Amino acid sequence: GAVVSQHPSRVICKSGTSVKIECRSLDFQATTMFWYRQFPKKSLMLMATSNEGSKATYEQGVEKDKFLINHASLTLSTLTVTSAHPEDSSFYICSARVPGPGANVLTFGAGSRLTVL
Amino acid sequence: GESVGLHLPTLSVQEGDNSIINCAYSNSASDYFIWYKQESGKGPQFIIDIRSNMDKRQGQRVTVLLNKTVKHLSLQIAATQPGDSAVYFCAAYPHNNNDMRFGAGTRLTVKP
Fold first, then answer.
1. Do A46 and B101 lie within an 8 Å CB cutoff?
2. Out of A43, A59, A111, whose CB is closest to B105?
3. CA distances from A19 to A5, A59, A79, B56 (A)
4. Contact (CB, 8 A) for B65 and B74
């Protein structure tokens, strides 16, 4: 079946560095992908909607210069956490809608756990 | 604000018992609701969905009930197994919005 793949699954970085997380749609094209953030024992919070060929749409309170999103192709969206700080440590999850019946259902990647030291 | 929410953050059941996880939604929630299961360290997985023109929908060992009068939906898991231990989220699309919103989640623990 259709799969959304995220990489890396875990990343540890030093404070002040930038980290890129990739989200790929396997076997289907995704003009739109969604990036969520999840704190421990909390729900998923939508950060931004990634749009292929155009700028991402950010949720209120999410710094677009901090969380750079690039949707360069129909199968790849990237989230770059710039100048990371310990408070950026979190579980980042991307998702996409698989075309066809049930297209309202979001298919999620396995998530990327970021730890900023 | 949130368009969906949950009554209880945790639920513990004995293996073999039935589990009921509840979710309340507001007027801003859509006419389409989805239940997801999230195991530790993984992304959410689709379980079952329901549209507002239905009151009930059944899957394999799972049933979703929708009560539009009180804006409440529930996920019932029959004969709960240890593998069902996870966090369960209800989700919906707010009206006129393409972005899915999640409830707070209920952590289900199945005791052997």
1. yes
2. A43
3. 17, 20, 8, 44
4. yes
Q: Any CB–CB contact under 8 A between B29 and chain A?
A: no
How far apart CA B31 and CA B91 sit, in angstroms, is: 11
B46 with A105: Cβ contact below 8 A: yes
Among the partner-chain residues B43, B46, B105, the one whose CB lies closest to the CB of A110 is B43
Beta bridge partners of A93: A36
B18-72 pLDDT, tens per residue? Answer: 999 999 888 666 788 999 999 999 999 999 999 988 999 999 999 999 998 898 9
Name residues 53-82 of chain A within 8 A of B (Cβ): 59
- CA distances to A27, A37, A70, A103, B92 from A50, rounded to whole Å, are 19, 14, 7, 17, 19
Q: Which pair of structure tokens corresponds to residue B89? A: 């989220």
Give the Cα separation of B85 and B25 in Å (integer).
24
Question: How many Cα atoms are found within 13 Å in the side-chain-facing hemisphere of B107?
Answer: 9
pLDDT tens digits, A15-35 = 999 999 999 999 899 999 999
Separation of alpha carbons B77 and B75, rounded Å: 7
What 3 state SS string does chain B have? CCCEEECCCEEEEECCCCEEEEEEECCCCCCEEEEEEECCCCCCEEEEEEECCCCEEECCCEEEEEECCCCEEEEEECCCCHHHCEEEEEEECCCCCCCCEECCCEEEEEEC
